[in-house]
Specification:
Largest sheet: 4 strands, mixed
Helix content: 25-40%
Order of helices and strands: EEHEEHEHEHEE
Radius of gyration: 30 Å
Number of strands: 8
Shape: rod-shaped
Structural class: alpha/beta
Number of helices: 4
CATH topology of the largest domain: Translation Initiation Factor IF3
Oligomer: single chain
CATH architecture of the largest domain: 2-Layer Sandwich
Amino acid sequence: MNKPLYNNQIRANEVRLVAEDGQQLGVFTLPQALETAREKGIDLIMVTDKVSPPICKLGDYGKYLYSLQKKERKNLAGSKQSETKNIRLTFNISDNDIATRVNAAEKFLNKGDKINIELRLRGREKSLADFGIQRVNKFIEILKTKLEIKIDRELKKEPKGLSMIISKK
């Protein structure tokens, strides 16, 4: 967070002054605005410099910083970052276990997370990758019956097995 400029850090010739209660006081030269702040025993805080003349507010700098931090924390708390959850299938997974994994995947997708489906291939299983692809496709078909999914990354053969990434539409 960039800290706003205050008092002698402000480098503008004129400023639009706003009182503590939000009342517009008008356009002042910087020395006049600083004098007004000193008379009241408070700080002159630059709220925005994107307009001409920049807007400055009279108030306590520490309290102003605290309110900015509070707003930022509130905004961060409201936004949820989506995670990538892993669902690992095995080469000889049973239908019952696939159903269990589908239920877990459905929960993750409804929360807004993405899912990385991986099927590890070991030893001779690597030569039978087609069978593994069928297992992953079966998992996807069952999941598609429960909710609409979007494939973010197609099924890809990697050195240790197969993987793909899906999310909810």
